[in-house]
Design a protein that fits this description.
The complex is a heterodimer of chains A (799) and B (222). Chain A is mainly beta and 799 residues long. Among the domains of chain A are: 104 residues, Sandwich (Immunoglobulin-like), CATH 2.60.40; 88 residues, Immunoglobulin-like (Sandwich), CATH 2.60.40. Chain A contains two helices and 52 strands. In chain A, the strands form eight sheets. Chain A has a 26-stranded antiparallel barrel. In chain A, strands 2, 4, 5, 8, 9 and 10 form a six-stranded mixed β-sheet that branches. Chain A has a five-stranded mixed β-sheet with strand order 12-19-18-14-15, with no helix packed on it. By secondary structure, chain B is mainly beta. Chain B has one domain: Jelly Rolls, CATH 2.60.120.1440. In chain B, the strands form two sheets. Chain B has a 17-stranded mixed β-sheet that branches. The N terminus of chain B is likely disordered. The chains are: A mainly beta (799), B mainly beta (222). At the A-B interface, strand 11, strand 48, strand 49 and strand 50 of A face helix 1, strand 1 and strand 18 of B.
Chain lengths: 799, 222
């Protein structure tokens, strides 16, 4: 019951935030050019809060880890450039992420951006600067090249390209500027009527500017070109340190449930480049750092050259997603590449020691956390079209790191990974496998072969003498598997990617054994096997996205213990249509999950002399999720308005619901969410957003409750847009009945208000206050009424 | 609840009156800065002027000794070059034709090349006004407010309350405060606006549409 209460409360606070009103509108480039910057542009619609930061995460399709660059705002557009030095493979994958001040994260692609990123081909040949014929006069062109003058001769250090445009005739988001066939739009500054760009280090001779755009209806306009000349040779290009990043400090005072708390955090992150060297770093410090818990501070410094990488601090190695995939390790990591040979290594601490304690009042023993050391190595071969490597990761709890701990673990995992990438990366075959050994309690020490024989009376035939391998892994009776030849601790994953005719097809098979365990990837689901198939189609000039997905897995396929195997089947269909300005965009998705374990009878156990107990293991359920969103941008009242209508329905049916025994909590559930929002951006610096939503839920056929939420947001900028004041109010009313048929009514009001001052040199100071009042007709574990107050002060500087 | 609502409404709708204020209009862009020059927006502080800076209606510019600033208007490419020790204020209003431009000049020297297809240009000084529609001319204002307009091409109407004259190439109009304009032949004036564009020789290699190479040698004065 208590757990249900928690779920209920969680639903109350989160369910209405499930529908993101914000949407990133982005049309991926058709292709990238090798060695050239890739400009990523987007705009975000339906904003109900300010943007804290925006990033584009990118990687080559063969890479495991993402890097990122910041997107910067220029008029209503957000732009960033993936450095050309990083565009070397056959395909480039990326996704866009906006972090809003209300802590909401908005992604593009909307679903699983990190796992299903956009992918564009990288071409070796120079692309057409722009479509259509080039005009060199200004006749009928929406552009006017203000500077340089036609055929003007200039010293290399004094070039400024300035182009004005007739805003009413073009879509500013489509403006593209090319200098000598290289797109430089992302380096340009775009304002209301003018685009400027100051190129550096131009070589002596002729230079060509081309500027292109589309009209408001999406039709390509004739590009405009102009020549100018550089009279002196640019100085030899010396490596220059180029860097972007931000520093920030955040202080927060909270009065939650009558308790006062305050904490502060500060940090900095940067990406830099000096010639061939790429440098990135991150520092995050918080007053919540406490030796009694795992580290909350973060430090990272990484230097990357053409043939090597060195990282220090908190690092997140990714070698093979069955073995080590994003686990935080505080230590060092590096990689070298010599010809076709590669070697990656990491060592450090994945958990720091936290001493256990005995509670002075209760006398209970609280077990501590052992310091956990991780060493990983991956020698490999990389020559097109093949990449191959073997990862070996060893993790061992340091038994001497604390005095009050239980079950120190020892883990070794080894496995190969393989990639075949042909036809310029359009066809990729990946395979990876892993084998693990885990000792659940290394504190028992290592056993000899005789110990094992004695303990298992010959039932276990160890192929090795454990004493000889003590330094690699401590083997005793808690080691799984003791008989590796049964392959219960093996895992493998094989998938095929086909990227043809605007279809991105992925087909894979995965199997993870019941005893497979990697402490460097402990969240990997075990005892499961099955296949997955998906196809993402981009149609009609990337305006229509259609995604189809099918998954069929068997959970608990080893049928270890008393659990039966469960068939998990899911079907996913998603469609998104972004026809362009002036037309509504639509996205809808449907997902169906089926779970069935084939058990048809209730199990009756004679557990007690006085009677019987029953166990109902029958499972045969279907869940259907439907999500439809409509968005429409329209101009009236001298403002751009964005209307959004959302509908989410979730229905879960249990085939055996009617025959469940009393006392069984029904799994059936129905939920319907409707959201209507209206956000507006005026020609003067005002943004507003109104949103109304309802949510009706029926859980287990008993609890029936509904939410109604009304929210309003306003932001107005003063002092030439340097001071932004904002306020948001969200009123939520809930009523219904609980599982015990008890009526309930809850009122929650959330007020958020503050201001953000844009200081000079890209510095911002934000003050935000939040007030939450809660009142409930119900008494119990959750207080029936409370008021929470939060004050937050934040400073940020971009550079 | 009612209190919260009242606070919000106050915050949200209390802002409305301020929204009726006219936002600044971007009318020109700085395309060259040599030496030290500063800009001040209508309600801001003096800041260093840099290439690419957008200029809004109401922005003021001042130049230090040895400085030169070139700006161009975004609608018709009309250009101004502001010489050292000058102070001006720009104003402009967009209409269907383009930007109606006004330049308030308190001291210094300005060269102006105004596009005849533009929406019009007026230069206002303490002693008089120069009204222009398509011409090239220099204006000098000294510390006493004395204004001189030197015609290079086209014609400039120069006037104050007392009288008006038409300045043509080779002529100079002079107005002292409180006096009628006086028209004389231009003497002892060295045009300076083109000085910064001098260059030496240059050889350029082109590729034509078919990929063929062509060379062009340009000669010009130092």
């Amino acid at each position: 019951m208590t757990a249900l209460k928690g779920v209920w409360t969680l639903l109350l606070f989160t369910s209405l935030r499930l529908i993101a009103q914000e949407r990133i509108i982005h049309h991926p480039p058709i292709a990238a050019q090798k060695g050239q910057n890739v400009t990523i542009e987007c705009r975000i619609e339906g904003l109900t809060s300010s943007v804290r930061f925006a990033r584009v995460y990118y990687r080559e399709s063969e890479e495991q880890k993402y890097k990122f660059v910041f997107l910067r705002q220029s008029a209503e557009l957000w732009r960033g450039a993936i450095p050309g030095t990083e565009v070397t493979g056959d395909h480039l994958q990326y996704f866009i992420a906006f972090r809003l001040e209300n802590d909401r994260l908005v992604n593009f692609p909307e679903q699983e951006g990190e796992f299903q990123p956009e992918e564009i081909p990288v071409r070796a040949a120079a692309p057409e600067a722009s479509g259509g014929s080039l005009a060199s006069s200004t006749l009928d062109s929406p552009f006017l090249i203000l500077a340089p003058a036609p055929d003007q001769i200039l010293p290399s250090g004094e070039v400024l390209i300035a182009i004005s445009f007739a805003r009413e005739n073009i879509d500013p988001a489509s403006i593209a500027l090319f200098l000598n066939e290289r797109e430089v739009t992302s380096f340009a500054v775009l304002s209301e009527h003018v685009l400027t760009f100051a190129p550096k280090n131009l070589s002596r001779g002729a230079q060509r500017i081309v500027v292109s755009a589309k009209d408001q209806d999406g039709r390509q306009l004739a590009p405009l070109q102009q020549m100018f000349f550089i009279r002196d040779a640019a100085m030899p290009v010396k490596p220059q340190l180029q860097w972007t990043g931000r520093v920030y400090a955040d202080g927060r005072y909270e009065n939650i449930g009558g308790r006062n708390e305050s904490f502060a955090l500060t940090g900095a992150e940067f990406n830099g480049r000096y010639g061939e060297l790429a440098v990135r770093g991150r520092v995050f410090l918080t007053s919540l750092e406490d030796g009694a818990f795992q580290p909350r501070h973060r430090f990272t410094l990484a230097v990357e050259g053409a043939a090597f990488t060195i990282e220090a601090g908190d690092i997140y190695p990714r070698y093979n997603d069955l073995i080590i995939w994003g686990k935080r390790v505080r230590g060092m990591a590096g990689g070298v590449k010599v010809g076709p040979f590669t070697l990656d290594a990491v060592f450090g601490q994945s958990y720091r020691p936290v001493e256990g304690a005995i509670d002075a009042t209760s006398g209970l023993h609280r077990s501590g956390t052992y310091g956990q050391n991780l060493i990983g190595i991956r020698p490999g071969l990389s020559f097109r079209p093949v990449r191959f490597g073997i990862s070996l990761v060893k993790i061992r709890d340091d038994q001497n790191s604390i005095s009050r701990g239980t079950n120190p673990k020892d883990n070794v995992v080894i496995g190969p990974d393989f990639l075949l990438s042909i036809d310029r990366g359009r066809l990729e075959l990946r395979a990876q496998a892993a084998f693990s050994l885990l000792t659940r309690d290394a504190g028992l020490g290592v056993f000899s072969s005789e110990d094992v024989d004695g303990m298992f009376a010959g039932a276990v035939d160890l192929p090795i003498d454990p004493k000889k391998y003590e330094k690699i892994i401590i083997i005793n009776d808690t080691t799984v598997p003791l008989q590796p030849q049964e392959l219960t601790s093996c895992a493998f994953d094989m998938n095929l990617k086909l990227h043809y005719y605007r279809n991105l097809v992925r087909l894979g098979y995965k199997r993870v054994g019941s005893d497979y365990f990697s402490l460097a990837n402990s969240w990997l689901r075990k005892d499961i096997r099955g296949f997955y198939l998906s196809d993402r189609m981009r149609l009609f000039q990337n305006k229509l996205y259609l995604t189809l997905g099918l998954e069929r897995y068997v959970d608990n396929f080893s049928q270890g213990g008393t659990k039966p195997a469960v068939d998990l089947n899911s079907v996913n269909v998603a469609l998104a249509y972004y026809p362009g300005k002036g037309l509504p965009n639509v996205s809808m998705s449907f997902r169906r999950y089926d779970r069935s374990n084939g058990v048809t009878d209730v199990q009756i156990d004679s557990l007690y002399a006085s009677g019987v107990d029953t166990t109902d293991r029958r499972e045969d359920s279907r869940q259907r999720d439907l999500n439809i969103q409509l968005g429409y941008q329209i101009q009236f009242w001298d403002a751009a308005h964005y209307f959004s209508l959302g509908y989410i329905a979730a229905i879960k049916d249990d085939r055996y619901d009617a025959s469940r025994l009393s006392g069984y909590f029904s799994q059936e559930m129905t939920s319907n969410v409707n959201v209507l929002s209206w956000s507006s951006t005026y020609h003067f610096p005002l943004r507003t957003a109104l949103s109304f939503s309802t949510n009706n839920n029926l859980m287990g056929g008993l609890a029936n409750f509904s939410y109604y939420s009304l929210s309003a947001f306003g932001e107005y900028k003063f002092l030439h847009n340097r001071l932004a004041s904002f306020a948001e109010i969200r009123l939520t009313t809930t009523n219904g009945t609980t599982l015990t048929n008890e009526p309930i009514e809850v009122q929650r009001n959330h007020l958020r208000a503050g201001a953000s001052l844009d200081l000079r040199a890209q510095q911002t100071v934000t003050l935000e206050t939040r007030l939450v009042t809660y009142s409930s007709s119900r008494s119990g574990a959750v207080p029936s009424a409370y008021t929470d107050k939060i004050v937050r002060l934040r400073y940020e500087k971009l550079f | 609840m009612k209190k919260n609502m009242a606070i919000f409404l106050l915050l949200l709708f209390g802002l409305w009156p301020a929204t009726f204020g006219q936002s600044a209009q971007e009318i020109a862009v700085v395309i060259k800065v040599k030496g030290i020059a500063q800009v001040k927006s209508a309600d801001g502080e003096w800041q260093p002027l840099v290439n690419g800076r957008r200029l809004n209606s109401g922005d003021m510019i001042k130049t230090e000794e040895g400085a030169l600033v070139a700006i161009t208007f975004t609608d018709d490419k009309s250009m101004l070059k502001i010489r050292s020790k000058s102070q001006i204020q720009l104003a402009g209003e967009r209409d269907d034709v383009g930007i109606k431009k006004r330049l308030l000049m308190t001291i210094g020297q300005v060269w102006a090349k105004i596009n005849p297809k533009g929406a019009g240009f007026r230069m206002v000084t303490p002693s008089g006004v120069a009204a222009v529609r398509g011409t090239e001319f220099y204006t000098i204002v000294d510390s006493d407010g004395k204004m001189s307009v030197i015609g290079m091409t086209g014609a400039v109407a120069v006037y104050n309350k007392a009288d008006s004259v038409l300045v043509t190439p080779g002529k100079t109009a002079t107005i002292e405060r409180g006096h009628a304009p006086r028209l004389t032949d231009t003497a002892d004036f060295e045009p300076w606006a083109e000085d910064d564009d001098t260059a030496d020789s240059l050889e350029i290699e082109f590729k034509d549409a078919k990929g063929g190479k062509k060379r062009l040698r340009l000669k010009y004065q130092e």
